[in-house]
């Protein structure tokens, strides 16, 4: 498949852009596809699908939550000669008690997993937990930058996984052998509380960063006071529930299974992000 480009959807996202970089470091041809990236691709515009798939044999699928678009996309991919699919899924998706699902995203993600399994192609599914990069470029980033992270997470812990590890697993599955039919549950090497996480970032940056635990009601009211619709605030509170309840503290060995090495520690992520200026300015 080396003479064919590899399609990466979501190529400007946290995992996608790192997958693009990993593949190009390996000398692979990459079609970096997204709504505003190198190659225009829009999940909601099926007219963009054919051009994205033309000539490719392997695809990294970063799905659009709340939709059931992966199944028709995979079916088209198979008709266009694609042989290998790597799907970005999520930890706990197979557990209906893992987190509340007010938005109804879970059935669509489960259908996406079923679609790749039933496709007849070589498939791999990645199920990462909380990204360590949520502290530097995601859900928690603005608060950490401001010096105070206020969340209804108690002293729950999560085994935060470095997106660099996710990208390396995906690149291996797209280009190597031995990954077909595998579901890789991805985590870091140790569960970390938010108190520990911000202390680690503080040490890496030389700045004081505090974690302030809130009740769910306090958190929702703060977001509403900042102008967020109450329904959206409640969804954000739901997202934190697995962390608060310790449901994401368990360790998974997907990184070792895929790469033959342990996952990167949270401290290594914090040092790299600080060196890159993630929390400066």
From TrEMBL:
This is NAD(P)H-binding protein. Residues 10-175 form the NAD(P)-binding domain. It comes from the Bacteria. PANTHER family: PRESTALK A DIFFERENTIATION PROTEIN A, PTHR43162. InterPro entries: Ergot_Alk_Oxidoreductase, NAD(P)-bd_dom, NAD(P)-bd_dom_sf.
